[in-house]
Amino acid sequence: MKDIPARKAQENSRLDGARLALAEAKANLVEAQLAEKKCETEAEEARAKIRELRISQSSNKMGNNEYRDISIRCDQLQQDADAADNRGQALMEEKIPLEEAVKKAQARLDEESVGVNAYIQELDERLAEVTAEHDELQGRRRECAAKVPPDALAKYDRLRTRRWPVLVLLTDDDVCDGCHMKQPPAVAQAVRHNDRIVGCSECGRFLYREV
Ligand SMILES: [Zn+2]
């Protein structure tokens, strides 16, 4: 009963590998998404700048040199925007296997979870059963213990962890069936009288005689 929580933890940790693989796959995908977003932003910024420069070209009275410089600048910006678009396109394609990897890792975790969860449920049910059984036995023990004199009960509790079974037969030859020592006549006699609890003179186990 005591090892059930530990076994549950152990079962749960079997999913750690699958959980880690999923977390890694998701992290890779997020990284690619961020990189793609960055390219989009760069391209948009370049295009916005071009629009701004074109407006200034059409509205201002400017010299030929200045007009030409702005045109050169716009061409450069257009090249930057195209390059960013291309990089974004490449990243979008790179994302496909990463999305696949996330799906696969999720499927693996789901699959492993089914088995582990079923087993954990089994352990929980077993724990509930054993706990109920334990409670019932404890209740019965309390009922029985209430009928036993306190000193005998204390002796029994001391013996039960070290000398099991506590209750043993005294044979016809007056030998304790627990430690196999011959009992003194007084002990044998007391067992025969059967009006109180008598312990073996050697091991202390409670003795009874078959009638
Ligand atoms: Zn004995």
Itemize the secondary structure elements and their pairings.
Blueprint (H helix, E strand, L loop, with lengths): L3 H10 L2 H44 L4 H82 L4 H13 L4 E3 L15 H9 L12 E3 L3
Parallel strand pairs: 1-2
Helix pairs in contact: 1-3, 2-3
Zinc ion binds next to loops.
Strand content: under 5%
Spatial strand arrangement across the major sheet? 1-2
| Terminal Cα span | 39 Å
Structural class: mainly alpha
Biggest beta sheet summary = 2 strands, parallel
**Number of helical stretches of at least 4 residues:** 5
Heterogens: zinc ion
**What is the number of independent domains?**
2
Stretches with pLDDT under 50, minimum 5 residues: none
CATH C-level class of the largest domain: Mainly Alpha
